[in-house]
Specification:
single chain, about 270 residues, mainly alpha, 2 domains, 9 helices, about 75% helix, CmpB_TMEM229, ABC transporter permease, transmembrane helix, membrane
Length: about 270
């Protein structure tokens, strides 16, 4: 592959988009099967999951000259695991949230990658190198240089635009969660004080204190923020909550849980 030829990068980018689309189809169908309803299982709005594109193109660049499928398999496992671990770490650093978590799988590393996923991606690497990439390369070779350039530019503009808009949405959602987390912390302190007070009184007095605590929650900033902020979530933010049910945040996990619970209530009302 001639890396001094501009057309090479056009092919690589189109391959990246094709495999990102294949990954989106696989993830969305799998999630939809488990949820018994359609789930757009992607971080971006468009039908692509970039980590699959990066992984597949990495396989093509690094493993295409290897003929032994066993070597391809284990090399694919390593490449995919490194890529997935780095992606999980980078997204957590950027958004202060963990978008997937493999802690419930055996042989995981910090919940970012697991043996099951690595074995599966090893299979994907063999399938891509031996069976899929020859057809993808043959298909893209049909484009004239002008068509290749035009298509690459159009797809790149769409991809970059989608990425920028999605990152802005996620950062906005992060701000909402931070605000809600602050309110939760304040209310928790107040609740702990009331619980300590609750233990001092007789049974008949405790009922009134419980009612006061319930009313206090409904009057609190936490409750108001849940009503105000969740009701204002747009479709993209709601889609992200649906697409990533294992979303976690060490910084504002209470807020994440409450927003996700509120989303489930919203979804249940719509299904009635």
């Amino acid at each position: 592959m001639d890396f001094f030829n501009l057309h090479t990068y056009g092919y690589l980018f189109i391959w990246f988009i094709i495999y990102s689309f294949f990954g989106w189809v696989y993830e969305s169908l799998w999630a939809s099967f488990n949820e018994k309803q359609w789930v757009n299982r992607g971080f971006l709005s468009g039908p692509v999951i970039p980590i699959y594109g990066f992984g597949a193109v990495s396989f093509v660049l690094l493993l295409s000259d290897i003929n032994n499928p066993v070597i391809i398999y284990f090399a694919g496992m390593i490449i995919a695991s490194i890529l997935e671990y780095f992606t999980s770490w980078a997204m957590e650093k950027l958004f202060h949230a963990r978008w997937w978590d493999y802690h419930h799988y055996p042989f995981n590393i910090n919940g970012r990658i697991c043996l099951y996923g690595a074995l599966l991606f090893g299979v994907f690497s063999v399938i891509i190198i031996k069976y899929v990439q020859p057809y993808v390369a043959k298909f893209t070779s049909l484009f004239s240089p002008a068509s290749l350039y035009t298509l690459s530019v159009i797809l790149m503009i769409l991809f970059i635009t989608d990425t920028v808009l999605t990152v802005r949405k996620v950062l906005h959602l992060k701000e909402r969660m931070q605000e809600l987390q602050k309110a939760i912390t304040i209310y928790r302190q107040q609740a702990e004080e009331r619980i300590a007070e609750y233990k001092k009184y007789r049974q008949e007095q405790r009922q009134q204190i419980l009612l006061n605590m319930k009313q206090g929650f409904e009057d609190s900033k936490v409750y108001a923020l849940l009503k105000e902020k969740f009701g204002d979530l747009d479709n993209h933010e709601k889609r992200l909550l649906k697409a990533f049910p294992n979303l976690r945040s060490r910084e504002f996990d209470d807020a994440v849980i409450r927003i996700k619970n509120k989303y489930q209530e919203y979804k249940s009302r719509r299904e009635k």
